[in-house]
Amino acid sequence: MMKTGVLLVNLGTPNSPSTSDVKAYLTEFLNDPFVIDFSYLKRYFLVNFIIVPFRSPKTAALYKEIWTDKGSPLKFNSYETCYKLQESLGDEFRVELAMRYQQPSVQSALKKLIDSKVDHILCIPLYPQYTASASESSLQKVQSEYDKHKNPPPIQYIKQFYQHPGFIASWVERARAANIDNYDHVLFSYHGLPERHLEKHHGSGNCKDFHCTEEVNESNRHCYRATCYDTTRKIAHELNLPEKNYTISFQSRLGKDPWLRPYTDHELIRLAQSGVKKILVFSPSFVADCLETLYEISIEYNALFQEHGGEQVQLIESLNGHPRWIATLKDIIEQNVKA
Length: 339
What we know:
The chain is of the alpha/beta class.
């Protein structure tokens, strides 16, 4: 009987909310040239002598706010997805979870699959919309570890999956469970990226030239701005949301360079000052709740919104182990195995 290995890759999390573990995580994460795409010396000095020493204690305090008895939300939510997917797929598949940074490592998860004698490996980075900083970094890491093995089974990669109808349907089900009609406005908040990442992606031209906020086409199908806007349109269409009732924004910026706009914090201030009282927030660039959703949106942005006259920012729970999401992953895997 043929057996397929499935490698799910998420971004990563500290092993604990201690400053030393957060420092180890940030050091590995921010030294990745896909994340901070400066020259080696500039990145090394900036990350190791400025960013990590100053940010580690502050970030550790944030992780302590969301840490649970089960540990890191990103990790246990990702494991829940892994276990439920394994149960759904059955014995013809073996599913392993890896983190791009920290544990469980790509090296250990890939070795488990290869040692179990699978005939084929399908790697799915758990980032719905392709980016160089997350998707490509994870794909390259997996490939580099894969290349260290002698005669490994064939490996196949899924670059993005935001366009899968099941992914959209999973978010629609989450929204309906949250009673969307009880809110004045809906905000789609995506993880931000420096503008220069998109400029590199497009080479000649920019997002305006390729109509990235209006459509996805052959030239921009891997542009993060284009795919975020398309994700929003697809969810809004299924929910019959008029354009005037929702906004797209980008969060989690770092440093002083321009990042994708509009910024989520600026939009929340604008909406509060315009009289909006209750906002429902999607974060469809994540499939598992994590620091960016549980702290940044639910705590930090909620407080910011209230400071400027709003009443409530309510986060829609991420997909985590939602049955529709597990069924979507199963369909993605089975369709690719058939192909």
